[in-house]
Design goal:
single chain; rod-shaped; mainly alpha
């Protein structure tokens, strides 16, 4: 019902957005629910890591500023501590960047899976129509051969 399709128009897009939220995941494809939960969890990790990186960077700067007024020895040690925290913050930012790429790949996989499910549904529909047409043709063929047989008899 709520599949994302290019031809779905505005409602198809809204349906896909609703199905992809964590509020109403039941509206989406049940087979992809676990993948959607993973994408949602990855977003939480991404936001948390980005927030942590920012907080560590702010803390490092505050540590540096405080250390400057505490004497040369402590200032020197806190300056090096600030450098370590800045490196850690940069590493967290890089990790968040990689996490974002992973999440985009997962979303791409979800979209491809939804498209595949839609194609499978359409294939089943075409197969059903073809089977129905074959049955009609077989029935018509039987009727034609019986009529021909009866015409030849009389």
């Amino acid at each position: 019902m709520f599949k994302s399709r290019p031809s779905g128009g505005m409602l198809g897009s809204v349906g896909a957005k609703i199905a992809h939220t964590s509020i109403m995941p039941g509206l989406g494809n049940q087979d992809l629910r676990t993948l959607q939960e993973l994408i949602t969890a990855e977003k939480g990790v991404l936001v948390g890591v980005q927030r942590l990186a920012g907080d560590v960077a702010k803390g490092a700067e505050a540590l540096k500023n405080w250390g400057m007024g505490e004497g040369d020895d402590l200032g020197d040690v806190l300056g090096h501590s600030t450098n370590l925290l800045a490196e850690f913050s940069a590493a967290l930012t890089q990790f968040a960047s990689y996490e974002e790429r992973i999440r985009l790949q997962l979303k791409s996989i979800r979209t491809r899976e939804e498209n595949l499910d839609e194609m499978k549904r359409r294939k089943r529909s075409v197969d059903s129509k073809a089977d129905s047409a074959d049955k009609k043709l077989a029935k018509m063929g039987d009727e034609a051969s019986r009529k021909e047989f009866l015409d030849n008899q009389y």
